[in-house]
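Entry 14. Ran structure prediction on the chain below.
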Amino acid sequence: MREMREMLISVALGQVLSLLICGIGLTSKYLSEDFHANTPVFQSFLNYILLFLVYTTTLAVRQGEENLLAILRRRWWKYMILGLIDLEANYLVVKAYQYTTLTSIQLLDCFVIPVVILLSWFFLLIRYKAVHFIGIVVCILGMGCMVGADVLVGRHQGAGENKLVGDLLVLGGATLYGISNVWEEYIIRTLSRVEFLGMIGLFGAFFSGIQLAIMEHKELLKVPWDWQIGLLYVGFSACMFGLYSFMPVVIKKTSATSVNLSLLTADLYSLFCGLFLFHYKFSGLYLLSFFTILIGLVLYSSTSTYIAQDPRVYKQFRNPSGPVVDLPTTAQVEPSVTYTSLGQETEEEPHVRVA
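Output, structure tokens:
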């Protein structure tokens, strides 16, 4: 009973993230279509500034090894790369809407799932069971059902000016999202959520500010500023900040793979809102798609994954200043930690402190 409750909680947490993405999508749609404010970099810049003000300043006032300067001395170039990856992932997917159709974006954006699985397998050493792959396939079938419903009700059309360019942008963005999500899981399991968000805020604000000045300053001057547009930017920033702040919590409780499967329902929440706000046509396939994805999530979350080697393999990101005791090579290493969609379960083995 307790495992069932924890599983349902993990699924529900993923749906909270989907609702936040729904809010991001709705505010972006109003800004671009109703007010002709095409400012994806500026919108990302606002989010990174909020992360900087909350989390980077928190790191700045900390003492010892968790202080901002101490972190920068040891790992600044790694976070610089991660900040660039995160920024460009957001930019590429938003930019793709100018070139390709909504259907293509919905389908190709699922490419993030195999990217996360492969990276988790090779770099986080996470191993999956048959039920996990069944759950993943069921989720993707549910997504395909939603795209089919879009075609039937006529929502599949988009700009489509240069479909190949748009499709490549989506694939590039999905790949970068996968890298960012797996790297995020790696950091929050070995370091801390505040460190990840603080460094993302620092480098994200820096690079998005440069990109904004170079690529988007003219678009920003064209925005017809009034209280409605201001409110939409505030709503977008609040949803994005909530997504970035809450996602590490959910990833640590579940995994990057589980989170990306949960986010497949975000388009459906946007659709259900669009039925009332934009008078979209309804199809029963949308409900079928929603429940199919939820069934896939339950299947994936019902069984634990596991780590192929001792969790001390995570030590390389930390660059410890003190000596690190290497694993003995004479004996086979057994898993001492099991990551599950219900959290982290420690087996009955001697506790080993990660350096």
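Residues 1-312 form one domain. Will compare against last week's run tomorrow.
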